Write a sequence for this structure.
């Protein structure tokens, strides 16, 4: 059986990749995808801990996260489309003021 | 049944206040008069019931509801009729009803809504005055006390479009508040010390105590505070200045409120708490001194005033001073007796002056009158009777009551106060007959700047004339309820009132007045005259002769100066210009109060309270808070860059720091 540590290391790597994506990319869609990667990194550690502890709680909460992530992606994409219509840009630095 | 007495005028007030502007004048006037007459009828029935009871049980009570119940402290909305209250309700409803009737004629030039407003105030006043008189404890009395103050304000300022009237109303209200403040403090002191505000309970408790020595006992302080309240309501030094200004109101109001009823509330209050005051000799002396001083001072001012109503106003202040003198001497019966006779002749004099003013279309300056005897015969004769009564001519009402006050004062050994009261009597006769001679005698003054009035001068209309005649009869005969025993009479009024001045169940007589009636009773019962009694009787007769002589001298003086030698008055005024100016300007008391009280308060309010506290502290606190928030936000605003990555970065760093804290702790 693959030990828990391996799963956690993979999870940490995925989370770091996602975080880096959020900070470094200049495209809103990419940032959204990076957030999805971070969420999935967390999902992976939930499932791994659940298996390690012989509990289904980890998997149950993962389903919740997947559901919320789906909703978040839908809302996020809708917001991005609306923003694009206003500014013809997907660069987050174009949206620094609260009103225009 | 007692509750009906104040309830009737209250109903009249509600009707006239709610529907008055839609009712024709005749109906709103009729309602106002009808409720007063009804109230008078109920009062008479109640008093007759009271008369039927044995002397020791002459108390009727009605508890309407429990007003305050807080632990041991209970105040009921209780009305109580005892001999003193009985006399007062008869005066208030009787003279009140007459003045209502008089008003229907006097105010007929007002438009409908104003007319109804006037009568609603007048009815409300009567209701509050009856609550004041019938209240069985201080708090119920205080409701009436404040209520009549309110109505006084409303009625003085009835013609509020005239600035002087509005100002006079405010002045009366504010000056009364000063007294009321002390009154409330006095009540609080009584509650704290004795735990009750009921007059009878207080009297029982205090009667068991020995009379207090010195100034600073609880009873002395409480009565002194109550007396300060009385100086406000009853226009005594130092709070009398509002009453002369109150003459801005309609004349019937001056007659009802500022002569016959409301201003006597202070005297009544002392009579109601006779037991308390008797146990505070220091307060009693202060009451007597203030009363005598006020009587003398107001009398001298009245001598030179030129406004017919102001002369009467100062006369009222002066007569109230005499009542307080009597109260302070412990002669409660004499004070209340004078209150009762004064109500008749002063109401008559005010209403008579009202008839003069009415006939002359608003002229109030006696320098512009003269010779009115021919045009206004009814007014002249009734006014003359009133003047004779107040001057103290033997046989008329004022003689008996004023004489009793003078006798009691002399009998108590205060010959300085007696001299002051005697001089006041002389002044009273003089200024009253100055008024009579200047108004009704001689020829019309040619220097009158007004249009000639002889053509449309008409005597009082029937409603007014009737009231004047009734009051003139009252002024003539009202004194016969208290004829002193040396004149072969019997002081029925004094005997009737006596139980009210004693603690419940107390039979021992105390104080000069009661002692005198006891002497009188003894005389009649046994027929044996001791040496002291003979001496007292002789003294009383001597004093009576002196006061009659004083009254006649005063009238003769007035006749000599203002009828025979008109030039003399002017000559005296020029000769003693300083004194004349001092009196004409009312001893500059208004100016003094203005400089000593009003100005400092205004300046203090402006520079300290307004510009300092309001603008500095309160506005400063508000503006300062806003400034701090604005400056702080200016700094914090820089954090909100709008860059999503900057937010995310700060969150990331925050998480790292928190995790680091827990890991390396």
């Amino acid at each position: 059986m693959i030990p828990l540590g391996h799963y956690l290391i993979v999870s940490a790597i995925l989370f770091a990749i996602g975080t880096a994506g959020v900070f470094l990319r200049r495209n809103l869609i990419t940032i959204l995808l990076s957030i999805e990667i971070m969420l999935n990194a967390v999902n992976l550690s939930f499932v791994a801990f659940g298996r390690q502890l012989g509990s289904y709680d980890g998997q149950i909460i993962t389903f919740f996260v997947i559901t919320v992530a789906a909703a978040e992606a839908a809302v996020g994409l809708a917001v991005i489309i609306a923003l694009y219509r206003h500014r013809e840009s997907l660069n987050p630095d174009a949206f620094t003021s609260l009103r225009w | 049944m007692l509750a009906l007495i104040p309830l009737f005028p209250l109903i009249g007030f509600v009707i006239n206040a709610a529907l008055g502007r839609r009712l024709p004048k005749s109906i709103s006037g009729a309602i106002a008069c009808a409720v007063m007459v009804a109230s008078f009828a109920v009062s008479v029935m109640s008093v007759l019931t009271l008369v039927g009871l044995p002397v020791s049980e002459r108390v009727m009570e009605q508890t309407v509801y429990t007003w305050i119940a807080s632990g041991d402290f209970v105040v009921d909305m209780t009305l109580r009729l005892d001999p003193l209250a009985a006399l007062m309700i008869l005066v208030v409803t009787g003279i009140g009803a007459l003045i209502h009737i008089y008003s229907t004629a006097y105010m007929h030039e007002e438009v409908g809504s104003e007319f109804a407003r006037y009568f609603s105030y007048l009815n409300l006043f009567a209701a509050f005055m009856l609550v004041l008189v019938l209240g069985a404890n201080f708090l119920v009395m205080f409701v009436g006390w404040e209520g009549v103050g309110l109505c006084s304000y409303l009625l003085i300022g009835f013609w509020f479009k005239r600035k002087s009237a509005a100002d006079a109303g405010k002045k009366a209200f504010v000056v009364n508040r000063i007294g009321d403040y002390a009154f409330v403090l006095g009540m609080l002191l009584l509650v704290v010390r004795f735990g009750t505000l009921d007059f009878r309970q207080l009297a029982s408790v205090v009667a068991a105590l020995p009379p207090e020595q010195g100034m600073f006992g609880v009873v002395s302080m409480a009565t002194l505070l109550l007396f300060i309240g009385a100086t406000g309501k009853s226009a005594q030094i130092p709070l009398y200045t509002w009453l002369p200004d109150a003459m801005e109101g309609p004349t019937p109001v001056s007659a009802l409120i500022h002569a016959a009823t409301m201003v006597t509330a202070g005297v009544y209050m002392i009579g109601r708490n006779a037991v308390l005051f008797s146990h505070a000799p220091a307060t009693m002396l202060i009451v007597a001194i203030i009363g005598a001083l006020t009587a003398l001072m107001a009398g001298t001012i009245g001598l030179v005033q030129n406004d017919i109503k102001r002369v009467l106003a100062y006369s009222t202040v002066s007569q109230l001073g005499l009542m307080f003198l009597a109260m302070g001497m412990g002669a409660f019966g004499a004070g209340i007796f004078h209150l009762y006779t004064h109500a008749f002749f002063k109401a008559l004099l005010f209403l008579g002056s009202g008839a003069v003013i009415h006939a002359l279309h608003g002229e109030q300056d006696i320098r512009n009158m003269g010779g009115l005897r021919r045009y206004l015969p009814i007014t002249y004769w009734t006014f003359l009777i009133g003047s004779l009564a107040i001057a103290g001519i033997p046989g008329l009402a004022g003689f008996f009551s004023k004489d009793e006050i003078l006798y009691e004062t002399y009998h108590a050994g205060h010959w300085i106060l007696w001299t002051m009261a005697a001089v006041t009597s002389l002044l009273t006769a003089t200024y009253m007959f100055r008024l009579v001679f200047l108004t009704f005698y001689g020829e019309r003054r040619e220097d009158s700047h007004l249009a000639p009035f002889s053509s449309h001068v008409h005597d009082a209309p029937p409603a007014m004339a009737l009231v004047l005649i009734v009051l003139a009869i009252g002024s003539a005969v009202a004194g016969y309820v208290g004829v002193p025993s040396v004149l072969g009479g019997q002081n029925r009024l004094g005997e009737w009132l006596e139980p009210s001045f004693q603690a419940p169940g107390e039979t021992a007589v105390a104080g000069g007045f009661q002692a005198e009636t006891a002497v009188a009773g003894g005389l009649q019962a046994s027929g044996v005259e001791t040496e002291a009694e003979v001496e007292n009787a002789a003294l009383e007769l001597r004093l009576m002769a002196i006061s009659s002589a004083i009254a006649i001298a005063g009238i003769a003086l007035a006749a000599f100066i203002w009828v025979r030698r008109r030039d003399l008055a002017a000559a005296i005024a020029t000769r003693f210009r300083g004194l004349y100016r001092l009196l004409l300007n009312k001893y500059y008391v208004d100016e003094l109060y203005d400089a000593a009280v009003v100005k400092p308060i205004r300046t203090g309010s402006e520079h300290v309270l307004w510009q300092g506290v309001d603008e500095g502290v309160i506005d400063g606190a508000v503006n300062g808070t806003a400034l701090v928030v604005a400056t702080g936000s200016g700094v914090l605003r820089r954090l909100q860059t709008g860059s999503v990555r900057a937010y995310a970065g700060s969150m990331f760093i925050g998480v790292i720091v928190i995790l680091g804290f827990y890991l390396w702790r």
In short: The beta strands of chain B are 60-70, 73-81. Confidence is low (pLDDT under 50) at residues 508-527 of chain B. The radius of gyration of chain B is 30 Å. Chain B is about 70% helix and 5% strand.
